[in-house]
Design brief:
Shape of chain A: elongated
Shape of chain B: elongated
Order of helices and strands of chain B: EHHHHHHH
Oligomer: heterodimer
Structural class of chain A: alpha+beta
Number of strands of chain B: 1
Order of helices and strands of chain A: HEEEEEHEEHH
Number of helices of chain B: 7
Largest sheet of chain A: 5 strands, mixed
Distance between the termini of chain B: 57 Å
Largest interface: A-B, 68 and 59 residues
Helix content of chain B: over 70%
């Protein structure tokens, strides 16, 4: 009878000590298993791992030899379905069409080196836009073809039409030399 | 007007052509960059660096990889371990569980690595050994 009561007391003590520890371990494991892949990055990309960051001059650009474009996304995140390229603009305000063209071109360049970029995110300090990309590189190129053609033409000595706007001209690096400037 | 034979176009040039083609023309013609634009560029560079730090910290705080801490984020050795994770661990349920547990526990280890260089060196030694084991296993499979 005495042995049973000692055994019972030890059992109760063991449960009292180990119980909370086991329960805590259970909760931890449960939390790990039920991890819903919430975003752990400032862009809100779920299940993403930071794969690449443009570190400045020491980071080499990507080259797409088929379309002869080069560029560096500001960052790339690896997700289960492929890569997400990020274009960051330090200014406030909405995302501009020119930001999107730049981001698409950088994504095309990254694709040229085997990175399966399926989405680009363009982020300013106050705005963020996600753009889903076509699967085919040709279709992606078609989206920016006009801008590439204009840039190439100017590079080869052609002229570029002015697009004056107070906000644009105000932030333009060449406004002092520009006869069309409305800044 | 400066002319060049190369067809290669950079993403920033494409963006600039969309923004204002004449601005791109002025750039190619060698027009001077205004002092305010230089200052704006410096501010932009600083903001970019700040954003980079934000992304790196978010990664380290949560889904931190010890290899990224030890070797660096873009290092080929880190990449080789990522490839091993994706090709060997992720296809199996046990491997995925291991990766989840690793993600949950690695921030603590990295925190210790950052504070104690001895632990950092020990982790580097262990990771180097682990990479050698993986490489030998890969070569045997081939």
């Amino acid at each position: 009878m005495l042995e049973i009561s000692i055994f019972t007391r030890e059992l109760v003590l063991t449960i009292a000590i180990l119980g909370p520890i086991l329960f805590w371990v259970f909760l931890k494991i449960r939390r790990i298993l039920l991890d819903d892949g919430q975003a752990d990055n400032p862009l809100g990309i779920p299940n993403a791992e930071l794969f690449y960051i443009d570190e400045g001059k020491q980071t080499k650009p990507f080259f797409n030899r088929q379309f002869e474009v080069l560029g560096k996304p500001d960052a790339m995140y690896k997700t289960p379905t492929g890569m997400v390229a990020v274009e960051y603009k330090s200014r406030k305000g909405s995302v501009k069409d020119s930001d999107i063209s730049q981001a698409l071109c950088a994504a095309l360049a990254a694709r040229g080196e085997g990175h399966k970029v399926y989405q680009v995110i363009v982020k300013t300090q106050t705005d963020q836009l996600e753009v889903d990309l076509p699967r085919s590189d040709k279709e992606l190129y078609d989206r920016i073809q006009q801008d590439v053609a204009v840039a190439r033409s100017i590079k080869h000595g052609g002229s570029g039409s002015a697009n004056p706007h107070p906000a644009k001209c105000g932030s333009c690096a060449h406004k002092m030399d520009c006869t069309f400037s409305v800044a | 007007m400066a002319k060049t034979q190369s067809n290669w176009i950079s993403a920033s040039e494409v963006g600039r052509a969309k923004f204002c083609a004449h601005a791109l023309e002025l750039k190619y013609s060698g027009a001077a960059v205004s002092a305010s634009a230089e200052k704006a560029r410096a501010r932009g560079d600083a903001a970019h660096e700040q954003f980079n730090t934000q992304m790196r910290n978010a990664e380290r705080d949560s889904r931190c990889f010890i290899a990224s801490q030890v070797y660096g984020l873009n290092d080929p050795r880190t990449d080789s371990l990522r490839v091993w994770r994706d090709t060997v661990l992720m296809p199996t349920a046990a491997g995925r569980l291991f990766v989840k547990i690793y993600y949950a526990s690695s921030p603590y280890l990295v925190h210790v690595c950052r504070r104690l260089s001895v632990v950092d060196s020990a982790m580097r030694f262990l990771l180097d050994g682990f990479r050698r084991v993986i490489n030998v296993a890969d070569q045997k499979e081939l």
